[in-house]
Amino acid sequence: MPLYQALRDQESEPSSRNEPYTGCYDVMIREWLHIASRRPIVMRGCKYALVVGSILIIINHGNAIAAGMVDSTRVVQMILTLLVPYCVSTASSVGAIIDHRAGKTDP
For residue 107, is it within any domain? Predict the structure, then answer.
């Protein structure tokens, strides 16, 4: 079931324990993860991570790489530098797909 249909069908009723109803959040998260794990979304994210992440690594760590001063801490920082554009690309793609399915248009 697409996200927009699930959200439209579910109501935000509090439970009997005066806690907020979180059922629609479970549906939203599952749908988001389902879209994010689709091959075209993953491939797009990997391409952006490789290109943009490599540029950021050169900018941020180029001197240390050239000097041969790459330790395990710097390697972890470089991996995180690659993850940032991947996450941004994936979140943007998923958001665009969800908005498109919901019929939202730009103002």
Answer: no
Decide if 93 contacts 45 (C-beta within 8 A). Answer: yes
CB 46 within 8 A of CB 28: no
In a domain, 29, yes or no: yes
**Total-model pTM:** 0.73
Sign of CA dihedral 30, 31, 33, 37: positive
The pLDDT tens digits of the residues spanning 11-69 come to 444 445 555 555 678 888 999 999 999 999 999 999 999 999 999 999 999 999 999 99
Owner of token pair 């797909």: 97
Q: Range of 39's domain?
A: 3-101
How many domains are contained in the chain? Answer: 1
For residue 9, which phi and psi values (nearest 5 degrees)?
-80, -25
Q: Which amino acid is at 40?
A: P
